[in-house]
Design brief:
- The chain is α+β, with helices and mostly antiparallel strands.
- Helices cover 30% and strands 26% of the residues.
- The chain is built from 4 helices and 7 strands; from the N terminus they run ααββαβββββα.
- A 5-stranded mixed β-sheet has the order 1-2-7-4-3, covered by helices on one side. Strands 5-6 form a two-stranded antiparallel sheet.
- The relative contact order is 0.17.
Length: 142
């Protein structure tokens, strides 16, 4: 029996899910919006600071892999275990977990991608930020 996705090494995951870059697709924004609404349907509103479309698919001017990256910012006082359990119960795979941060995937199976795109969610305890995600990405492209 092959290992679960959570047990695979990075090398094994890269072989199973090779990275291919594509020109920007307008549908990536729609995929994000559908997933955002789905997340809002089961995550408690008082446990969310912000949900953001991040990563290369959020930028219209660059090529990207078909992985919609979503950042869930949750309050510092939020119970990470409750958020983890809700995401697990709703079909997300917990790929890594550390103090104040969890990373989830959706759309991945042991035989490859389930659909033409996948979702990567990073849930982090919110920190006071004086900049926007757009500012971060623009500064890294200079």
């Amino acid at each position: 029996m092959s290992p679960s996705l959570e047990e695979m090494s990075l090398e094994e995951l890269w072989q199973l899910f090779p990275i291919f870059l594509r020109e920007h697709q307008d549908e990536w924004k729609d995929w994000y919006e559908e997933e955002r609404l789905r997340l809002l349907s089961f995550l408690p509103a008082n446990q969310l600071v912000r949900i953001s479309h991040i990563g290369s698919t959020s930028l219209e001017t660059i090529w990207a892999k078909s992985i919609v990256d979503i950042l869930l910012e949750i309050p510092k006082e939020a119970d990470m275990a409750v958020m983890r359990d809700l995401l697990l119960q709703n079909g997300y795979l917990l790929m890594s977990e550390s103090q104040g941060r969890m990373s989830f995937n959706k759309g991945y199976t042991q035989s490859g991608l389930q659909s033409e795109f996948s979702i990567c969610i990073c849930a982090m305890k919110a920190i006071m930020m004086n900049f926007t995600l757009e500012t971060i990405y623009k500064s890294t492209l200079l």
